Amino acid sequence: SGKSDGGGQWIPNYQLHLFAGGATYIRLIAWFEQRDYAHPRMAAATTWFAGQFLNEVIENTALTQGSVDAMTDLVIFNPGAILLWNSDRLQHFVGSHVEFTEWPGQPTLGFPGHTIENTFQTTMVRARLPRSTNWRAFTTMGGSYLGGLSHRLGDSTWLSFGGGWDARTNPVADTITGRKTVDLHGNVGLFVDRSGSLLGSVLLRSGFDAGMTVNIYPGVVGPRNQSIGLWAQYLRSHEIRAGITTGWGVGFGRNPPP
Q1: C-beta separation of 248 from 218 below 8 A
Q2: Burial of 227 (0-12, 13-18, 19+ CB in 10 A)
Q3: CA dihedral in degrees (92, 98, 99, 102; nearest 10)?
Q4: Quick check: 121 pLDDT over 80?
Q5: Which H helix or E strand runs over 12?
Q6: DSSP secondary structure letter of residue 190
Q7: Averaged over 144-170, what is the pLDDT?
Q8: For 29-33, 61-65, 75-79, which range has the lowest pLDDT when averaged over its residues?
Q9: DSSP character string of 29-93
Q10: Of 204, 177, 202, 181, residue with least CA distance to 192
Q11: 36, 42, 74, 117 - which has most CB atoms within 10 Å?
Q12: Is 15 a residue whose pLDDT tops 90?
């Protein structure tokens, strides 16, 4: 189905929950294994599913009669992701043919208003192009939905540029079931990473209220062990939101005055 009258909801089901979410689950297994947890798969599944559950709670807070969107993810696609990505054959195939990583936002407590800003999770997939060592095809999903090319700037540094769409709003098409449609706007993005670790990004649009968004991640500004991250958004209300972060966790930012 298309986007009209609530169609197209299956796209994030597959992209974000089955594919990208399952890969996050696998990365969590590795994290727990490196720290010698007795049951890394169980710990990873519990951690990942708890995050998915809280995400659905926040997205569907206003619905009191249940939600087709939330239950489809929690009952079908999330368990399906765990089953699918527990396959060693699939892990080997993906690990051998594509570069697969996550480019998150820089979560920040915003004042005034006590909000959490600049928090998103983008999954990046990059694959080699035939007969080329310096160019690769890439796509992102989650925080942005883009596709384009990556060019090697050095041994491990890549510059990526892509175009696509931003889901500006998700109007509810059915207030009983929570069935939604989507309002898409064009978007472009520029990214710099080193061995898959994001150093900086510029997006023309980001989220429901932000226009241009710039993120500079810890490791770029200042000494490595004391490096800070910076970000700023030009809002569609023609105001500025900005913040500062560290490698230790949540940062602090400034919201426009109420």
Answers
A1: no
A2: middle
A3: -80
A4: yes
A5: helix 10-12
A6: E
A7: 90
A8: 61-65
A9: HHHHHHTT-S-HHHHHHHHHHHHHHHHHHHHTTT-SS--HHHHHIIIIIHHHHHHHHT-HHHHHH
A10: 202
A11: 117
A12: no
